[in-house]
Amino acid sequence: MTTCGIVLAAGAGTRFGGPKGLARAGDGTPWVATVVRTLRDAGCDPVIVVVGAAADAVAALVPAGAVVAPAEDWSDGLSASVRAGLSAAAETPAEAALIVPVDVPDLTASACRRVMAGAGRASLRRARYEGAPGHPVLIGRDHWYRVAAELTGDRGAGAYLRDHVADAVECADLWHGQDVDHRAAPA
Q1: Strand order, beta sheet including 3-9
Q2: Which CATH class is domain 3-170?
Q3: Can you give the pLDDT at residue 178?
């Protein structure tokens, strides 16, 4: 089965203090480059990066070979980013999409592979960390249109995944599952 990766990097990051698509690790590596590499290492092809706030600056950080997909209506919230990602995915032969936000620079390829394992066009899967839902999320191609149609405002696919009883894939032994909501304090 072919799976594309979708990195959601379109938000303004108001709580974070700026677009997370521009965030960098302590060594200067852009989070977006790290997350793209992780998805590639997991076997995702292609990897799509959804941009919005500071679109040109974020796109400049996207590694060669990854697809940049603009979310023109990014200010409408997370739903716009997911829709843009799924729309770009529909232009590929992928049978599923593995979706992650850009603010998970510590995400492991092994957690991605576990969520992807055995998935198909009709699959809905979501990583769990000690029972709490997290990322990555896998959405089979058969669901893309319905997911996109149901999304509104600053909400992702969580309600759809709950309503359609997505498979829970425990990944706490592979990664902590936490996104980064605040900038690290200067040393």
Answers
A1: 67-70, 47-51, 3-9, 96-101, 132-140, 124-129, 167-170
A2: alpha beta
A3: 85
